[in-house]
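Appendix C. Worked example: Patatin
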Amino acid sequence: MNSSGNSSKHKTKIALLLTGGGARAAYQVGVLKAIAKNLPRNQAIPFSIINGTSAGAINATALACYASCYQLGVKKLEYVWKNFHTEQVYHSNFTSVFGHILANMLRSFQSNYENHPPASLFNNQPLRGLLRSVLDLKRIDNNIRNDYLEALSITASSYSSGDSVAFFQSKHAESWQRAKRRGEKTTINIEHLMASSAIPMVFPSTKIRQGYFGDGSVHQHAPLSPAIHLGAEKVFVIGVEQPIDNKYFGFQPHYPGISTIAGHLLDTIFSDTLRADIERLERINRTLSLIPAKDKHKELKRIAHFVINPSQNFNAIATEYYDVMPTSIKLLLRSIGVKKHSESSLVSYLLFEKEYTQHLIEIGYQDGLSQLDEIMAFLEFTNT
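Step 2, the predicted output written as structure tokens:
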């Protein structure tokens, strides 16, 4: 296998886009592991630009920290996901779970002039501690300075302006502004990751400077935009969109409950905008192919893309591991209609237990291996 030196010196600027999805993001690790299996041990990351949203932002940042040695970065990422427990992401004991809910209820009776902590279903302070312990963010700047990486972008949603904001760290790129979306050059820190992964209503919003931000998948009408603004010529996307399960189509004997509707909302937030943006990209590419080179506008360019999504349904898999969830979390979810065999997809987002995440990693690994030839060709690695 050919191996280039530093990734950013690769002849084509290839971006990696990791989407959101809570615990489902374990799948991304499996795909990344399949790619690593086919590269030399000391190979730098095969992506010059890394973009992440929600849980994908955490995976993206971990990779950026180890851009100089892709296999090492994937191994460290896999170790965390393979040993996950819910308590590492959000408080899950009885006292903390129901005390948090009670505190939210009591604060609702206080004056609006009070500076209340953000309301949420769960308290995800443990995640902040986990990120601080496993991520050495100083390495990102070193990797950019040494040309192992061109840019890292983390998308969050501004609750103040309603904009989709791509916070990015780069040597050369400059900030940009478009309708309802913008890019802000900065130094990525833990607060950007906490904001980007704050699933609406599930986890609390995060304050960055003078504004409050939440999950980057909200308001994200153009998920491919940050990668393209940062100079990508190709975009490799690892999504978490589910294969269609036909049993949910047709006659339904009852109204969908709160839990089912909440699951549908999360599915929409994490999947639908990406699909629409890819369709728009394909349409632009087709249009450009019909325009003579001399007439093409300098701001328009063809962007190649490769998308890999799960081959199996995570909702069904989450049902298999429902019983390993902490009892307090099962009781809380049951109160809003989420049971073991519910149609809701909420459990598949919140099940941060190693039995489940290991299963998703293995699915991602097998999906990656099944398309490895096409993936390596897209990444411009060829057999020697």
